[in-house]
From TrEMBL:
Lineage: Bacteria, Pseudomonadati, Pseudomonadota, Alphaproteobacteria, Rhodobacterales
Sorted UniProt keywords: Fatty acid metabolism, Lipid degradation, Lipid metabolism, Lyase, Multifunctional enzyme, NAD, Oxidoreductase
InterPro entries: 3-OHacyl-CoA_DH_CS, 3-OHacyl-CoA_DH_NAD-bd, 3HC_DH_C, 6-PGluconate_DH-like_C_sf, ClpP/crotonase-like_dom_sf, Enoyl-CoA_hydra/iso, FA_oxidation_alpha_subunit, NAD(P)-bd_dom_sf
Name this protein carries in UniProt: enoyl-CoA hydratase
EC number: 4.2.1.17
The keyword NAD is assigned to this record: yes
Amino acid sequence: MDVLEQIARKPVSEVTPKPPEVENWRYASGDIAQLWLDCADTGTNVISEAVLRELDTLLDQIKGEQPRALVIRSAKAGGFAAGADIDGFADLRGDNAVQMLEQGHAVLDKLAALPFTTISVVHGNTLGGGLELALACDHRIGLEGVKTGFPEIQLGLHPGLGGTFRLTRLIDPVAAMQMMLTGGSAHDRKARKLGIVDALVPERHVEAAICAAAAGKLDQESGGLRASAMRTRAARSLAATRMRSESEKKAPNQHYPAPYALINLWEDHGGDPKEMQKAEIASFASLLDSATAQNLIRVFFLRRKLKSDGKGDDGIDHVHVIGAGAMGAEIAAWSAMQGKRVTLEDVALEPLGKAVKRAAAIYDKKHLSGVDARDALDRMMPDPDGLGRARADLIIEAAPEKQDIKEKIYASLADVMKPGAILASNTSSLRLTDLIAATPDAGRFAGLHFFNPVSQIPLIEVVSHDQAETRTLDRLAAFAASIDRLPARVTDYPGFVVNRILGPYLMEAMVMLEEGKKKEEIDRAALAFGMPMGPVALADQVGLDICLEVARSLRKNLDRPMAETPDWLEDMVNEGRTGRKSGRGIYDYDKGEDPPNLPDGDPPENIIDRLILPMCDAGVECLRKGVVKDVDALDAAVIFGTGWAPFRGGPMHYAKVRRNVARRLEALASEHGDRFAPDAGWSSFG
């Protein structure tokens, strides 16, 4: 039994009594006192106002007892602490935010000033506020597998409980700044190399490491020569200039103020921890008031809501994928990586071989260890004879977007699938209603729409139809969550939600190209709005053949006018120029032609409105038709399915903030045609 299990099972009589108001900590007194963070009613520790208030009380008690050392660690098996309690500060503003931050800093300062050795033992996720708590201790002992980092930048913030000045004083300040600016993490060996943890040990050696730290025998790394040099304003200014330049490439100051606030904070005050602490509090409170932070915090909650839709046991151990093309191969590789047993079927052997190579490349890109990559590959079995059909709990059909091909596959499963197994289609352009008749059991058939590339895009649309059983949909949502994807529950509708909203964005870009606008101009305008990729580049990424199929489907099945697809696009697809996957699309990748990755400094407003506002309009249509349950679910699906400018909070949130979208659509309709005519749902939206 490891130490975590021991403390979890310790009788109350063996734990030192604590004040009655303390609910989130366990305390064991002694020569080496031990504090265990154990947040009540949750499986994950977070650093909340209550956690810090209780710690303040306990520190007074422990200081009076004068132990030789104090050890702080977590009673949760999953990690030390996942970060700050975002629920607790999301609505804070102005003076209230400053006051709460000052109180939190006072508690960690009290911990840092204790007259005896303090040691934090960290394991698993040690992030944000959890890492700031650990940094306030004299020593940090990391257990193998620990993950440290400051992800606050992803919320439009920077560390706010002392992380900015404690990390830049502890390790190489440039490396510390890079961690905070990117939100990147340092896993166990990297954390040790950087000096974030003073020792990295397996669980069985943790007590010996604690004793060594208490006896002053644990060596600590210093920040090195660069740390000393960076205490001068001139040196920091040079480094800060480079940091601003690098940040601008990925997070323009216009949209993401947090990186630049952090750089200014360090440049101005990095030589004086006390002044940097004061400035950190003021800067964090100011950022918390910004629209960017509030929208990114909203996105955090949207992600959490999607995850909650996938709760429960999926009952799916074995997945059988039919079709080893790009999508099928990625689905199989990702499912195997997440622990599922997978069989992959195709009518030809060559795609199966390519699928195995693709899987190996994905595992390498995801930094799987040799053992983990081998185990994942062992779980993914090429199955040219389709033997897995009869044993699978879930069959995912990822065949070409041809109704007759899919119907033949479904008919061949009629007497093969085991009782209770689910059949799911990865179709992106066909209506499930048109496929139901060919399925063995309509109740256990639904859509499971992955996005390309599966290993990078976190969303899966779980698509219902009138005859689908609730249990089937619940299991598919739980399956999505079990393979670390976000399930978006939608109904059967042309393009479902994501492609219905993305379609006009891509199609309008094709119309603009037909008008003679340059592809780079169109893509740079979208980047300036905040999209992660311009529509022309995205069309190449998705595949021009797939874009063409989605465009045809939308035009055929929607009762609203859509942009016509230029003839040259169909010609390109017929010639095999399908985009990045073929080496040639609208951009010629074989000749080294890459899409722009920097925005236009002064983009034409008309281009942005023509690209973006039809997406908002399609969203209103989806809400009116009940394709998705509410605004939050729609915004979440589009953000996580397309990367839609997250700092704007999603297309519907953007429309609410902008307010004049319907009127602007009317103006565009008079100028460019009925495809811009606002949906009837605008009258009740707002």
